[in-house]
């Protein structure tokens, strides 16, 4: 027997769509960024048409007013961690919001199963935390020309290829703990050689031995004929 939970009617509602609630936007430390839900056609194929009330037609004016209410463009510090982006419409809305963060300076995107944000540009971002995601390369990071503090712990970055793209940024500290590249030979020397302005790696300041360039293997250009 199917029993609907008390919260079932609010399954696809955003917090600001729920009437008579006391929670204000500035009280949310880690807001959800999901849309009001999938299309009615998708709900029909899921067999979930019972979960939402009949949606009214939203005018262009109402859409614009709601967009202005979000005000992502003026956001300077934002935590969008632990979003649990399980559906495609949630991922698309998440990316839509990231594209609007033109003034954000501190951004946390921890544990969101992110794989590629290379199409996103964060022109003013100075501090970015993308720990516990699925990045495999530095090429998949967003464009962050003003970055100073970058945390990439617990991703799946295999090699240091592409790290030199951060060379022309004011990056001071970088965290790569619990990535496969951490076990690369002369790991710290390679990172500091690629990023000469870097001061701290994995919470440890630059040490005297980190100043030396990474050792390169010598292969003689000689052919022996037997």
Provide structural commentary:
The chain is α/β, with parallel strands linked by helices and 226 residues long. It has a domain at 75-210: Ribonuclease Inhibitor (Leucine-rich repeat, LRR (right-handed beta-alpha superhelix), Alpha-Beta Horseshoe), CATH 3.80.10.10. Helix content is 17%, strand content 8%. It contains four helices and seven strands, in the order ααβαββββαββ. The chain has helices at 40-46, 60-70, 88-99, 187-194; strands at residues 77-79, 106-108, 127-129, 149-151, 173-175, 200-201, 204-205. Strands 1-2-3-4-5-6-7 form a seven-stranded mixed sheet, covered by helices on one side. The longest helix has 12 residues, at 88-99. Mean pLDDT is 81; it is low at 217-222.
Would you state the CATH class of one domain? Alpha Beta
Strand content: 5-15%
Helix and strand run: HHEHEEEEHEE
Q: Output the radius of gyration.
A: 23 Å
CATH architecture of one domain: Alpha-Beta Horseshoe
Helix content: 10-25%
Q: How far apart lie the N and C ends?
A: 81 Å
The CATH topology of one domain turns out to be Leucine-rich repeat, LRR (right-handed beta-alpha superhelix)
Please tally the β strands and state the result. 7
Reading side by side through the largest sheet, how are the strands ordered? 1-2-3-4-5-6-7
Can you summarize this structure?
The chain has 226 residues and is of the alpha/beta class. The chain is 17% helix and 8% strand.
């Amino acid at each position: 027997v199917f029993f609907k939970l008390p919260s079932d009617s609010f399954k696809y509602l955003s917090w600001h769509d729920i009437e008579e609630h006391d929670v204000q936007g500035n009280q949310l430390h880690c807001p959800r960024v999901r849309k009001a839900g999938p299309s009615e056609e998708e709900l029909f194929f899921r067999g979930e048409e019972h979960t939402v009330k009949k949606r009214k037609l939203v005018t262009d004016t109402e859409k614009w007013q709601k967009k202005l209410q979000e005000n992502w463009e003026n956001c300077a510090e934002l935590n969008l961690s632990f979003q649990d982006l399980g559906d495609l419409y949630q991922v698309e809305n998440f990316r839509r919001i990231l594209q609007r963060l033109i003034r954000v300076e501190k951004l946390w995107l921890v544990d969101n199963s992110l794989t590629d944000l290379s199409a996103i540009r964060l022109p003013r971002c100075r501090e970015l935390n993308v720990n516990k995601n699925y990045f495999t390369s530095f090429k998949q990071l967003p464009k962050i020309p003003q970055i100073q503090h970058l945390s990439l712990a617990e991703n799946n970055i295999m090699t240091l290829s592409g790290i030199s793209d951060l060379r022309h940024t004011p990056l001071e500290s970088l965290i790569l703990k619990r990535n496969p590249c951490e076990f690369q030979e002369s790991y710290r020397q390679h990172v500091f050689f690629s990023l000469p302005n870097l001061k701290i790696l994995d919470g440890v300041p630059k040490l005297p031995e980190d100043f030396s360039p990474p050792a390169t293997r010598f292969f003689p250009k000689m052919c022996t004929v037997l």
